[in-house]
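Input structure tokens:
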């Protein structure tokens, strides 16, 4: 008998929902790293758990150039995110139907096609996409709204599962509730904006769109996305897929604890390349192993029951001297000057009389050396 890919003490990171199976919970997201069959195959080779393709519509998009700008220059930029003024796929729908979807399907992974935008447009292309062998649909309402109408039209047009992708600019919980009868799950969120960046050497906007406006994605978007996912997960029973700022395994774990069944990754793959998918999946597996969990399901939604109760920091944080590396990050960001880094004694000292229990140091420490209990 073939050995199971995970030995006994390794967590099972495969996930199943809406009748679909994924080898791990890290999926591609509609965007330039999913712009054709070849990029989707490349993602598959790099350990992604499932595929979501770039949004297609009745006409190819005419995209302004330039259309992407980092939020900040250099390495910091990759930790913050980007603005983009890309639209949907620049390839004609026929090309996707004849070629790109079947190339992506060669991977053997579950493939979700993204489509938009108006009800009559999705009604026209959805059955053709289903016939191309795609396993599910994700519809994007980023530009037009009208979620329920589109969901109803799709429900009548195809038999495969349908996911609605929501923008953070709407009341996601209310919209998710109104969509629940017609869809198999919700994807959240799309980019936030409009936003702006100016090149200070020229005074000109960095993007070639109208008034230089673009949409924000990446690490900077994550707290908004996380709040949206928790709101949606508390509002509906159907599966939720999270997207927005997933850069490492810990981000994915956070989303899964907030109720996500899987995550999609767009900006991290743009800034770091397709190897990031497998890296994130590996980090999820390691984290589950280290924390004694057997599967992704074990942590799915576990944060939701804590949200209605307020957390309280009753005492000044405690330092675990074994974990503290004396890196100096926490004293630097303690606005109350309550943390002293005593290099002679090789010790971090918290002055309880000065500490205002704001909690920042606990979140700043990369080594989990500070805790509240
Ligand atoms: C350059 C770029 C192009 C995108 N194109 C699409 C698209 O065609 N359809 C769509 O639904 N979302 C699109 N998105 C949004 C992403 O799928 C995702 O929802 C968003 O970027 C947040 O995830 P991230 O922080 O991992 O990038 C695009 C994002 C970027 C950065």
């Amino acid at each position: 008998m073939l050995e199971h890919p995970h030995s006994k003490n390794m967590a099972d990171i495969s996930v199943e929902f809406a009748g679909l199976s994924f080898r791990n919970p890290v999926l591609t997201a509609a965007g330039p790293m999913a712009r054709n069959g070849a990029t989707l195959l490349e993602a598959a080779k790099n350990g992604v758990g499932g595929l979501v393709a770039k949004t297609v519509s009745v006409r190819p998009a005419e995209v302004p150039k330039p259309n992407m700008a980092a939020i900040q220059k250099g390495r910091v930029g990759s930790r913050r995110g980007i603005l983009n003024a890309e639209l949907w796929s620049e390839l004609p729908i026929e090309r996707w139907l004849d070629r790109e979807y079947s190339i992506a399907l060669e991977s053997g992974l579950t493939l979700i096609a993204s489509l938009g935008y108006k009800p009559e447009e999705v009604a026209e292309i959805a059955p053709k996409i289903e016939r191309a062998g795609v396993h599910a649909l994700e519809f994007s309402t980023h530009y037009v709204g009208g979620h329920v109408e589109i969901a109803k039209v799709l429900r009548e047009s195809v038999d495969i599962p349908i996911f609605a992708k929501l923008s953070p600019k709407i009341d996601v919980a209310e919209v998710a509730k109104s969509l629940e009868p017609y869809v198999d799950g919700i994807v959240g969120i799309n980019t936030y904006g409009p936003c702006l960046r100016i090149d200070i050497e020229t005074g000109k906007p960095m993007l070639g769109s109208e008034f230089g406006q673009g949409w924000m994605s990446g690490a900077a978007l994550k707290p908004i996305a996380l709040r949206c996912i928790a709101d949606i997960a508390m509002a509906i029973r159907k599966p939720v897929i999270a997207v927005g700022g997933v850069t490492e395994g810990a981000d994915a774990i956070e989303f899964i604890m907030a109720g996500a069944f899987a995550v999609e990754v767009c900006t991290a793959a743009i800034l770091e390349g397709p190897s990031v998918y497998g890296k994130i999946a590996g980090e999820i597996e390691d984290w589950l192993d280290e924390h004694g969990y057997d599967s992704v399901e074990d942590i799915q939604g576990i944060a939701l029951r804590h949200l209605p109760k307020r957390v309280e920091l009753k005492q000044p944080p405690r330092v675990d001297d074994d974990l503290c590396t004396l890196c100096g990050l926490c004293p630097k960001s303690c606005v109350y000057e309550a943390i002293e880094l005593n290099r002679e004694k090789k010790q971090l000292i918290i002055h309880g009389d000065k500490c205002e229990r704001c909690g920042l140091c606990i979140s700043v420490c990369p080594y989990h050396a500070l805790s509240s209990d």
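The longest strand covers residues 51-56. The pocket of flavin mononucleotide is lined by residues 29-32, 54-55, 68, 82, 84, 86, 88, 114, 140, 142, 165, 190-191, 217-218, 221, 243-246, 265-268 (CB under 6 Å).
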